[in-house]
Specification:
13% strand, Rossmann fold, 320 residues, alpha/beta, eight-stranded mixed beta sheet, 8 strands, globular, disordered C terminus
């Protein structure tokens, strides 16, 4: 029985990912991260078919403090998570700066992925070699400039190029994760291209219609999220996927594995730099949540101690 967490479920592809995961017999709980609880509830009602539970967790992925708080809540509620599927994405037609000072696409499409991965790493590791992160990326990836990820210094903002850069970042951080604690924890991190589907996001990129069905595009992420058998993390022992296993060293098109152009020694410095930038951006928010948890634990311990002390005095009085 497994717990799977999915972001971006109310979009065209996300809805299909959610439906196919919910229909999987081995999934006991599907947690949908949504900004709009009404839309999330409508989707949950629509796709609820099997015995597994569908739960909603409200979060604004454009707010780093909210993402950190959500990640902390998820980690407390679900000490064992089998899969995190990062699927959320936005494509605004103009440059928007969030309250945290980041360009909106970068914050939602990249930083939120990283923060959820970090927050849920202990829960994913608790799945004992089954845990995995599925980062929904794209073949449209490119144009990443690590010196100007917020489009404020060197370039005139272009929504298509900004989107492409976030998808390149998704792929790069997936490969870097292996050497940043996920590998030793036995957690696989993969990236994939789901397909090109008619959607609001596609129209935001200036394309009227896609050429894949939403069902087809949702099948790859759902398969990667629910597949129980894994090859060793970082393994490159096979060049293609099968119906029973996948390797975290491949970039997927649906269920078909291939090598990613940014997963090699020549790109390692850039991948490391990206990770360190995201870590620096996320650290204050993740640390604040960790401090809150410590305060709660401290307060709980103090209350428990006081109760124990009072209980001891009462018992002693009764014995006298």
């Amino acid at each position: 029985m497994s717990t799977i967490i999915l972001s971006g479920a109310t979009g065209s592809i996300g809805g299909e990912i959610a439906a196919q995961i919910a229909a999987t017999a081995s999934v006991s709980r599907l947690v949908l991260l949504v900004r709009d609880l009404e839309r999330g509830a409508a989707l949950a009602s629509k796709i609820q078919r099997g015995p597994g539970q569908i739960e909603l967790e409200k979060v604004d992925l454009a707010d780093a403090a909210d993402v950190a708080a959500c990640g902390a809540r998820l980690a407390r509620k679900y000490p064992q998570v089998d899969a995190l599927v990062n699927n959320a994405a936005v494509v605004p037609d103009k440059r928007i700066i969030t309250r945290d000072g980041h360009e909106l696409q970068w914050q939602v499409n990249v930083l939120s992925y990283f923060m959820l991965m970090q927050s849920l790493l202990p829960s994913l590791a608790a799945s004992k070699g089954v845990g995995r992160v599925v980062n929904v990326a794209s073949d449209y990836a490119g144009d990443l400039d690590l010196a100007d990820v917020d489009w404020s210094r060197r370039r005139r903002y272009n929504s298509n190029s900004a989107y492409r850069s976030t998808k390149e970042a998704n792929r790069r951080l997936s490969w870097e994760a292996r050497s940043r604690g996920f590998g030793v924890a036995g957690v696989a991190v993969v990236a994939l291209m789901p397909g090109v589907v008619t959607s609001t996001l596609l129209q935001g990129l200036g394309m009227r219609r896609g050429f894949d069905s939403a069902a087809k595009a949702g099948a790859g992420p759902a398969w990667l999220a629910t597949e129980a058998r894994l090859e060793p993390v970082g393994s490159s022992s096979s060049s293609s996927s099968s119906s029973s296993s996948f390797s975290s060293s491949f970039y997927y098109h649906g269920q078909q594995a291939s090598k990613c152009q940014w997963d090699n020694a020549q790109e390692s410095k850039s991948n490391a730099r990206l990770w360190e930038m995201l870590d620096a951006a996320a650290a204050p928010y993740l640390a604040a949540e960790a401090a809150k948890a410590g305060e709660v634990e401290g307060a709980t311990g103090a209350v428990a101690g006081a109760i124990a002390g009072n209980t001891g005095a009462t018992d002693a009085g009764e014995l006298r």
